[in-house]
Design goal:
The protein is of the alpha+beta class. The chain is built from eleven helices and twelve strands. Helix 9 crosses helix 10.
Length: about 300
């Protein structure tokens, strides 16, 4: 299976604070935007409110520019003839609307010292408030993970990728953190921690947020309740009822949706097992999943888990 770029989840404040560009190595080098918290962004997944859509194209060459806000700021996206699916979605959308966007990071430098960041969307889909809230929570969790990575790096004398990986951080984040510390120097992690708090406050009243924060350690110790036998059987029945779709991609999408517990996503090993029952072997499944990821139909909320957008 070919390596694919992670669709990072970052808040607008972190993304728009980025000024470091990095190009990888190889025959077809990949370009990255590296954030102050070490996210090496080539692809990203954002979910927010589309507040404005502007048609800036010419006759026969549609092009749309839009703004999408999250609790910390605004993302800027544009789609034209080379992103027909995204352009079509924007043309039919009426702001304000919740939307999920999978796209590539873009940087434009009109003059020395000035850099504008945007997103070139691969896929845009209108979603509901629940999807937006879920993205906000997952992005908050990912941001806190990067903050801790930067804090660990700043404690080191000459931080290295290997040192951070030994502490349990993935290679792409470890490499990004090292480059971020070298470029941005003393990263103000408290600023981004405040952004996370602000994002969470947008979901919960302040009193409830404080209560949950205070109770978090105790709650974390509690064992998650096991699903009742009846619930487990119902989920199994749903999986068996998934038929072969119009094509293999449709079938895999339905399997992921049926397996998904509704929070973390569908485990890869269970997808492989279910696909075998639909006469789809592991090699073919990997190809299908790679295609679905590229199209923005699914994403990886965490390593080894798949979730339908």
């Amino acid at each position: 299976m070919n390596l694919r770029e992670v669709a990072w989840r970052v808040f607008a404040e972190e993304y728009n604070s980025s000024t470091l560009e990095y190009k990888g190595e190889g025959e077809k080098p990949v370009s990255y935007i590296i954030t102050p918290l070490g996210a090496k962004i080539n692809r990203m997944l954002i979910v927010g409110v589309v507040t404005d859509i502007e048609d800036i194209g010419e006759e026969g060459k549609p092009r749309y520019r839009a703004r999408i806000t999250d609790p910390t700021g605004t993302f800027y996206i544009s789609a034209g003839e080379y992103q027909p699916s995204a352009a079509m979605a924007l043309s039919k959308m009426s702001p304000p609307a919740f939307a999920a966007v999978v796209g590539k990071s873009r940087a434009y430098t009109p003059e020395q010292g000035v850099k504008y960041l945007s997103i070139r969307p691969e896929r845009i889909r209108e979603v509901d408030a629940e999807a937006r809230d879920y993205w906000t929570l997952e992005t908050a969790r990912s941001t806190l993970r990067r903050i801790e990575g930067v804090r660990e790096g700043l404690r080191m004398t000459g931080p290295s990728t290997n040192q951070l990986m030994k502490l349990g951080y993935p290679e792409n984040l470890s490499d990004g953190v090292v480059r971020a510390i070298e470029f941005y120097k003393d990263v103000d992690v408290s600023r981004f921690r405040n952004c996370v708090a602000e994002a969470l406050r947008s979901l919960l009243p302040e009193e409830m947020l404080r209560k949950r924060t205070d109770e978090a350690p105790a709650e974390a110790k509690k064992e998650r309740p096991r699903p009742k036998k009846e619930e487990a059987e119902t989920k199994e029945d749903e999986l068996h009822e998934v038929g072969v779709g119009a094509d293999e991609e449709d079938t895999v999408l339905k399997l992921i949706e049926a397996i998904d517990s509704g929070s973390r996503g569908a485990p890869w090993d269970k997808i492989v097992e279910a696909a075998k029952g639909k006469k789809i072997d592991k090699v073919r499944l990997e190809e299908i999943v790679a295609s679905l990821l590229d199209k923005g139909e699914i994403y990886e909320p965490e390593l080894g888990m798949m979730k339908k957008i």
